[in-house]
Amino acid sequence: MSESKDAAAKSLPLFYHEPEAVNPERHAGKAVVQSGDMSFAANAIVIPLMAAEMPAAMRSYPIVFFGPDFMPVAILGIKQGENLFVDNNGKWAEPHYIPAYVRRYPFILAGDDKAERLTLCVDKPRLVEASAEKNETAKPLFDNGEKTEIIDGALSFCEQYQGMYRKTREIMNVIAGADLLVERNSKITLGDGKSFNISGFHLIDEARLQSMEDDAFLALRKADTLATIYCHLASMNSWTSLLHQASLRA
């Protein structure tokens, strides 16, 4: 692979290898398999979360902030290459919340944030030939040149996700601007004595939050950030959920 292809691969979003715009000519006779197999997420130690998901996700995962934009992520493992919530059969552990980022795959909207309308894309390696025989898990993208309900559903979900993404960016800009985020490292010790370090993430400093002036705190409320802040703080209790999954895996 050339250096340019290597760079392109590194710039692609998590899980995606070769997203291409959906159209009836290119994808005539193509289908996506909807079997519930989530093996594609089995190596993801963290997965992006949107602010709107945090009330449901905080019960299952520690939620921290990562990257230059301090976007929320759910921690799903304690060592690289291991998602503790996906088993060897690609099944997500019940009753834990499945992030929208996972449920969106293999579809994604592509384009500039300023574009009036983004383009629906599908990850090419996830496509299969639409069988002439009835297959309940392989869903054709097009039928006689007309888009099927698979495309309609994917487009609706991806547009909803994009809206949640923009809202989350706005919320995190306010939280970061309020100087509430601090970098932290965590050391996790399992029951067998093995220890793992998780580093490079940010948390909300609860002491700074509690000491804010009234007008600054009111600004956070008006910017619709409080649910995100308190869900994050509550999610710190879910380190025990992570350790429980680790003990089951062991």
Strands of the biggest beta sheet: in what spatial order? 1-7-6
Give me the secondary-structure category: alpha+beta
Radius of gyration: 20 Å
What proportion of the residues form beta strands (DSSP E)?
A: 15-25%
- Please provide the ordered H/E string of secondary-structure elements: HEEEHEEHEEEEEEHEEHHHH
In whole angstroms, the N-to-C terminal distance is 37 Å
- Average pLDDT, rounded to a whole number, is 89
* Overall geometry: globular
Helix count from the secondary structure assignment = 8
Main pleated sheet: 3 strands, antiparallel
| Structural domain tally | 1
Poorly predicted regions: 1-8
Q: What's the number of extended β-strand segments?
A: 13
Percent helix range: 25-40%
Write a brief caption for the model:
The protein has 250 residues and is an alpha+beta fold. The protein is 33% helix and 23% strand.
Question: What key phrases describe this protein's structure?
Answer:
alpha+beta; globular; three-stranded antiparallel β-sheet; 33% helix; 250 residues
Describe, in plain words, how this protein is organized in 3D.
- This protein is of the alpha+beta class and 250 residues long.
- It has one domain.
- The chain is 33% helix and 23% strand.
- It has 8 helices and 13 strands.
- A hairpin with a 2-residue loop joins strand 10 and strand 11 (146-147).
- The chain is globular.
- Mean pLDDT is 89; it is low at 1-8.
